[in-house]
Write a structure and sequence with these properties.
It is a single chain. The chain is an alpha/beta fold. The chain folds into two domains: about 180 residues, 3-Layer(aba) Sandwich (Rossmann fold); about 150 residues, Rossmann fold. It contains eleven helices and 13 strands. The longest helix is centred in the middle third of the chain and has 22 residues. The chain is elongated.
Length: about 375
């Protein structure tokens, strides 16, 4: 299949490495196939409302090291369930899928590269089943996509969390405090687990292992008794106490009504500890600092590899797939095989064994 004109959009939350993908797709399509590249602005919303721009080597030559995405991203532009407000402030949902397909046809694209996480790629698969030639490119700091060993953006997020832990370590030890770091990850504990191991955490709480507060308190007391009156705790935002639900934020915006916004578990754990142990407890919530900033070399390289391999797959007519890293190779995984699957830390993960082998408490 000859490529004459391709499009690319970035959906969902931003992360480091998105611009590496945009640059790779643009350069590969232009240099190898002399194809035109169209950048769709603000995720699927740009396809719904026909917002796009030309991309070329000149437009993308300085973006490899930049965080975020030059095309913009949104997690509210769902073509099948687009949220709109009426004059009374009530939220209604509209199906713009037909309009999305019409705009795609108007752009005369041979293939659309959809860069995103689970939600974005589920939408991509639905549109593919309606006839749009699409290829997915896996992106999320959560590293929770099935079919790929790593998503780009993840390693940078882990490094941001690890850097924060290094700094909390020095102040926690100096002031004899319990320092809690709440990290992102939604229902998957990859960031918390890897950052916690690298950042010398004494307690790591992740969604996959419901925690017993008694075990956490026991770890802190044991450290005090042996002359270490401070502790470093990593809490993933989706972590939950045994027998309880994950804690959600009350400050979710209207645009995200109906979507659980996790957050607050770090302060919950801090309160529980301060009620039982005579140490000062401080909680730091990293939040969106994990998403932004300069991507690590790993994410720049992975994003570049995924982008070029996606263009190669499109040239061979292999749409309906996601490019994925498995081992050292980039392979194709059918989009339909990913739908609704969250890749959590497995119970037999070597990372869990590693953490517990060096004395880290996982709350159990």
């Amino acid at each position: 299949m000859g490529l004459k004109r391709v499009g690319i959009l970035t959906g969902g939350g931003d992360c480091s490495g998105l611009n590496a993908v945009i640059r790779a797709v643009t350069r590969s399509a232009t240099i190898e196939y002399d194809a035109e590249v169209v950048g769709i602005e603000d995720g699927f919303e740009g396809l719904i409302f026909d917002r796009h721009r030309k991309l070329g080597i000149e437009e993308t030559k300085e973006i490899l090291t930049r965080g975020g995405t030059i095309l913009g991203a949104t997690n509210k532009g769902h073509p099948f369930e687009y949220r709109e407000f009426d004059k009374d402030g009530q939220v209604t949902k509209r199906d713009y899928s037909k309009q999305t397909i019409e705009n795609f046809k108007k752009l005369k694209l041979d293939c659309l590269f959809v860069v995103g996480g689970d939600g974005t790629l589920q939408i991509a698969n639905r549109l593919y089943e309606m006839g749009l030639p699409l290829i997915g490119i896996p992106k999320t700091i959560d590293n929770d996509l099935e079919g790929t060993d790593y998503t780009f953006g993840y390693q940078t997020a882990v490094q941001v969390a690890c850097d924060a832990l290094d700094r909390l370590h020095t102040t926690g030890e100096s002031h004899q405090r319990v320092m809690i770091l709440e990290v992102m990850g939604r229902d998957a504990g990859w960031i918390g687990l890897e950052a916690g191991i690298a950042g010398r955490a004494h307690v790591i709480l992740i969604p996959e292992i419901p925690y017993d507060m008694g075990k956490v308190l026991g770890k802190i007391r044991a450290r005090i008794e042996r002359g270490d009156p401070f502790s470093i705790i990593v809490v993933a935002e989706g972590a939950k106490e045994t027998g309880k639900e994950a804690i959600t934020s009350e400050g979710a915006s209207k645009r995200l009504q109906g979507v659980a916004q996790l957050g607050g578990v770090g302060y919950h754990v801090a309160k529980k500890i301060s009620e039982q142990i005579d140490l000062e407890v401080r909680c730091t919530v990293l939040g969106h600092t994990q998403r932004g900033g300069t991507p690590l070399a790993f994410d720049r390289i992975l994003g570049t590899r995924l982008g070029t391999e996606a263009v190669q797959a499109a040239s061979e007519g292999k749409t309906g797939n996601m490019v994925a890293l498995q081992g050292r190779e980039i392979v194709l995984v059918p989009l339909k095989s990913l739908a609704g699957i969250v890749r959590q830390v497995p119970a037999d993960s070597p990372l869990i064994r590693t953490a517990e082998s060096i004395g880290v408490c996982l709350g159990r």
